[in-house]
Amino acid sequence: KNQVEQSPQSLIILEGKNCTLQCNYTVSPFSNLRWYKQDTGRGPVSLTIMTFSENTKSNGRYTATLDADTKQSSLHITASQLSDSASYICVVRGGYGQNFVFGPGTRLSVLP
Amino acid sequence: DAGVTQSPTHLIKTRGQQVTLRCSPKSGHDTVSWYQQALGQGPQFIFQYYEEEERQRGNFPDRFSGHQFPNYSSELNVNALLLGDSALYLCASSLIGTGSYEQYFGPGTRLTVT
Lengths: 112, 114
Known about the structure:
The structure holds two protein chains of two kinds. Chain A is an all-beta fold. In chain A, 0% of the residues lie in helices and 59% in strands. Chain A contains no helices and eleven strands. The model of chain A has no long low-confidence stretch (mean pLDDT 92). In chain B, strand 7 and strand 8 form a beta hairpin. By secondary structure, chain B is mainly beta. Helix content of chain B is 0%, strand content 50%. Classes of the chains: A mainly beta, B mainly beta. Chains A and B meet through strand 4 and strand 5 of A and strand 5, strand 9 and strand 10 of B.
C-alpha cells in the first residue's frame, strides 16, 4: 500500500534555531516528492519538488534532501522564524499517472 | 495572475443536507483535484477532473460528486451530509502534460456539519 509517514508529529523550537523534519514513503514507482507548508486553515504552499535524480534542493532557509534508495526525505529549516510556525506536509507522487499521496504533516511551532 | 480561488470560504450545513463547493483553477491550468482535510490530518484525495471528466477517484462514497466546466472551473457536491464530512475542502489545479506536474492549492472551504 502506498503510504507516506512523517516524524515528528509535532515540534516546538525557539526562534533562531534549526530543525529537521523527516518523511518516509513506500510509494512505488516513484515520480517526485514535494514539501508543502500549510498555515492553519489555509491551503498548502509548495516549498520544494524533487525528482528521482535530485538529492538536495534549497528554497531560501528551507533545504530538502531525498534518498530514493532508502525512500526517505528530510526538510531542514535554518534560523527559524515565528512565521515558520505551520504544518509541513510531505507529498509523494507515484509514477504511471498515479496521484499524490499525502503524509499527515508535522506541526511546527516556533516560539520567541 | 489569479491563483486558485475557492468559494465559499466557510459554510455551515445540517446533517442530511446537500452542499456545493466551487473552485476556479490558476490561469492556464486545465486539471482540478479535490481533497478533504480533517482537522490535524493530511489531505485525502477525493477525485480529479480533466477535460470535464472524472479521471481518478480516491476512496470516497458516491455521495461525493463533481463537475468540471468548459472554462476548467469545478464544483464539488456532497449529498446527505454526515457529521464526519466536516473538514477543510481543498482544490488544487495543475496542467497536464507539463513535466513538473506542479499542483497549486486554493485557500480551501471550511465545511461544518451540525
